[in-house]
Amino acid sequence: MANNLPTIPTFEAGTIPSESWRHWKEDFGDYLEALRYSEAPEKTKTALFRHLCGEELKKQLRAFDLKPNDGCEGVTLQQVLQEFDKYFLDYQNEVFASFKFLEIKQEQGEKISDYYSKLRNAVVECNYGESQDRMLRDKLIQGDCWTKHCRKD
């Protein structure tokens, strides 16, 4: 499956590992789909995961000690991704994420649409559940976005 698509960057945990994992996993899924590897055998997909993930994830993958499901030749990509989902869930700190969300301020001259996008990306980590849209609305109202000097849209 030769291609001209550049590979995705290796995983870096950054300051919010759960968010970094979610974004990297999404990029990896897009990469598999774009190159039509999503239809490839599980062995190929897991090998591609190990090739692209970087040393940090490889080290953790070895520590998981995963076993193949019944009837499977090897560990499936789904097993690997689920194990990492559980692993990075431990790093999710909704109190800190809420603090960061509530501290976001609209920059002077920043468009409301850009400010809203910034808030929308940050609120995901807060686990507000069904209250997420209300929290976004309240944050918009609480902020400076309704004052004359910030309004650009």
Question: Which class do the helix and strand fractions yield?
Answer: mainly alpha
Percent of residues in helical segments?
55-70%
Order of helices and strands: HHHHHHH
Portion in beta strands: under 5%
The average pLDDT is: 85
Measure the end-to-end span.
45 Å
Give the low-pLDDT segments.
none
Based on CA atoms alone, the radius of gyration comes out at 20 Å
Protein name: Reverse transcriptase domain-containing protein
Keywords: Nucleotidyltransferase, RNA-directed DNA polymerase, Transferase
GO molecular function: RNA-directed DNA polymerase activity
Outline of the structure:
With 153 residues, the protein is an all-alpha fold.
What does this entry look like structurally?
This protein is mainly alpha-helical. The protein contains 7 helices and no strands. α1 (17-34) packs antiparallel against α4 and α6 packs across α7 (132-142). It is elongated and about 55 Å long. The mean pLDDT is 85. One of its GO terms (molecular function) is RNA-directed DNA polymerase activity. It comes from Trichonephila inaurata madagascariensis. Keywords: Nucleotidyltransferase, RNA-directed DNA polymerase, Transferase.
Supply database-style keywords.
elongated, mainly alpha, 153 residues, single chain, RNA-directed DNA polymerase
Layout of strands and helices, then pairs:
Elements (H helix, E strand, L loop, with lengths): L16 H18 L7 H12 L1 H10 L12 H13 L4 H10 L8 H12 L8 H11 L11
Helix pairs in contact: 1-4, 6-7
